[in-house]
User: Which sequence fits this backbone?
């Protein structure tokens, strides 16, 4: 082989080597790119699946009389951290009335409810819309407290009470009974007086009354509730700064989504039912009722109606708090 032809052959060999180097580099780059893409896809898939994680919000099926106690309650629920639920619940009834019936302005547009929660039935997990209703009873304790608790017990459900501090003395046994049956005993001020609570425009007396009542309830039940309901509702008396003061005092405040107007129909319990039928349509409802004779009379029918509509009955749980106030204030 001549020197020239050897040089040529070496040059050819070198070109071949360069080509195979290039091909190898391309293969490596493609493999790397594929790895990165599949990694990104995996992350996206994990995140998407995570959003539908059934453990984030678990509600069990509606319960009827005779079923076991736990089945009608929201359990393992994480409503408080689910922004969908919080958002939903801040869209309350357009024509909200105070709990003494005065029509209150509420500019919130009615929104379709998109509460997607999870049913947990015999470890079978399937995603479906679960409707939840919170029955709430204001202005107790009273001679009707035990009757209301009995009706709830007969139906295997629980409710949320907002009791008045000045009614506690002499009614301690009723308060204790409601608490021990699994209901939430919340706060509704000491005086229920519009003048004392709102006329100054300052939150000072309001917070003082609720703090005092919190101590009294704790003495009776052993539990210091942090959920309050402002007498007559939070609007129009309670403004933004006032709400900030309530939040700073570590209280949460619930208004309602449905006003049964039960106080207004002492001789017409059927009209309470009509109000509820007219207003109930959301996936999560908080119904305002009072400890009144007419309410006790119609309560079994209300429970039956809501059950047939597919609602589960839930009781307020501090660790699953979500906002229900007319101002849509997420601090409360
Ligand atoms: Zn009230």
Assistant:
């Amino acid at each position: 082989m001549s020197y020239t032809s050897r040089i040529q052959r070496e040059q050819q060999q070198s070109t071949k080597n360069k080509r195979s180097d290039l091909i190898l580099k391309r293969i490596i780059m493609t493999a790397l790119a594929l790895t990165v893409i599949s990694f990104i896809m995996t992350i996206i898939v994990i995140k998407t699946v995570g959003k539908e994680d059934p453990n984030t919000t678990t509600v069990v099926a509606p319960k009827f009389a005779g079923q076991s106690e736990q089945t009608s309650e929201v359990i393992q629920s994480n409503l408080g951290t689910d922004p969908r639920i919080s958002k939903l619940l801040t869209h309350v009834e357009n024509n909200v009335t105070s709990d003494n019936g005065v029509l209150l302005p509420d500019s919130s547009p009615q929104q379709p409810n998109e509460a997607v929660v999870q049913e947990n039935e015999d470890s079978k997990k399937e995603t479906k819309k679960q409707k939840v209703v919170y029955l709430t009873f204001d202005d107790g304790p009273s001679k009707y407290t035990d009757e209301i608790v009995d009706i709830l017990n007969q139906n295997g459900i629980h409710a949320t009470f907002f009791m008045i501090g000045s009614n506690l003395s002499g009614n301690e046994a009723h308060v204790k009974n409601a608490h021990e049956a699994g209901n939430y005993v919340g706060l509704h001020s000491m005086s229920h007086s519009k003048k004392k609570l709102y006329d100054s425009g300052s939150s000072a007396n309001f917070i003082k009354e609720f703090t005092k009542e919190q101590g009294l309830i704790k003495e009776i039940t052993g539990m210091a509730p942090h959920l309050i309901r402002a007498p007559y509702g939070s609007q129009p008396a309670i403004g933004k700064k006032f709400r900030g003061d309530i939040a700073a005092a570590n209280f949460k405040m619930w208004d309602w989504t449905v006003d049964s107007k039960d106080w207004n129909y002492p001789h017409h319990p059927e009209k309470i039912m009509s109000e509820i039928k007219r207003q109930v349509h959301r996936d999560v409802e908080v119904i305002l009722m009072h400890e009144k004779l007419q309410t006790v009379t119609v309560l079994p029918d209300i429970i039956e109606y809501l059950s047939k509509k597919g609602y589960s009955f839930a009781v307020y749980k501090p660790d699953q708090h979500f906002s229900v106030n007319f101002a849509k204030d997420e601090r409360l």
